[in-house]
Amino acid sequence: MVRESAGDRIFHTCIVLFCGFAIVITLYPFVYVLSMYISNPRHVLDQSVWLYPKGLSVKAYRIVLSNPEIWRSYYNTVWYATVGTILNLILTITSAYALSRPKFFLRKHIMLFIAFTMFFSGGLIPLFIIVRKLGIYNTRLAMILPTAVSAWNLIIARTFLSTNVPETMHESAFMDGAGELQILVRIYLPLSKPIIAVLALYYAVGHWNAYFNALIFLPNRDLQPLQLYLVRILTQYSNELVGDINITIDRSAYGVQLKYAAIIFTILPIICVYPFLQKYFVKGVMIGALKG
Predict the structure, then answer these.
(1) What 3-state DSSP class applies to 244?
(2) Which H or E run contains 279?
(3) What is the extent of the structural domain holding 264?
(4) Of 40, 134, 136, 218, which is the most exposed, with the fewest CB atoms less than 10 Å away?
């Protein structure tokens, strides 16, 4: 057994202290928002809540859940995240499979064009014009088609498929009469669960947090996602949510607390889903980043 030197012990102690500090500063915002969310509104208004809740009130929770607009926005976000992620995965995996084939003579040239888009883009105005010309402005498709494929995610997926699926498996399946689609579905997809989980998490979080495209392309409130609704709550008091409260100080207190309630209501699904995908997340990123 090798004994650690004094320098190693000091180094390990510093690493533990640094990780502990990182955990504290990462968790504190969540604890603070949760405490403000369930505290008595008057304590929230006088800013006396710093760590643990003071008093207990769930009225802000009931106000948020009783508002029909937030449920409509929630449905829109779930729709965008679900449909958008499915479309993203289909296009990304199929494109990555084609670009991972050594016999595809254009794959290097196409990869150069894809990599080019990571550093240079046309900007917002050309994108807006394209969306208008395609006829998807102020429709649900405006939230999923412009971001259908991420160049970075495509490169990761292509790298994973080319380095983790033996070429001999593809050749043997092809000799047995399987087509490219059958090989992709029956061989590549079962062996690509880690990277699929990583891509699904990346795309789903991106759709869940998206608000800028909605701000530009969706003037219709019935189609706007939850994040855009949250922006309106965070930037101004929502009189329509606290309209049934007559006392001025209570209206102000609940106006502040509703912001924290909306934040919890927005981030809770992602926090609940992430632990189930975490075991694939690290593995998929590490394997997919081995080589380009």
Answers:
(1) coil
(2) helix 248-288
(3) 59-288
(4) 134
**CATH code, domain carrying 88:** 1.10.3720.10
Count the domains in the chain: 1
Structure tokens at 167: 């070429």
Structure tokens at 119: 């550093």
pLDDT (tens digit per residue) in 220-263: 988 989 888 877 776 665 555 555 544 444 556 666 777 777 77
Residue 27 lies in a domain: no
**123 SS3 class:** coil
Q: Whole-prediction pTM value?
A: 0.78
Measuring CA to CA, which residue among 150, 243, 248, 256 is closest to residue 204? 150
Token readout for 115 is: 């990599």
| Tens of pLDDT, residues 130-173 | 999 999 999 999 999 988 998 888 988 888 888 877 778 877 88
Rounded Cα gap, residues 195 and 181, in angstroms: 19
Q: Please report whether residue 30 resides in a domain.
A: no
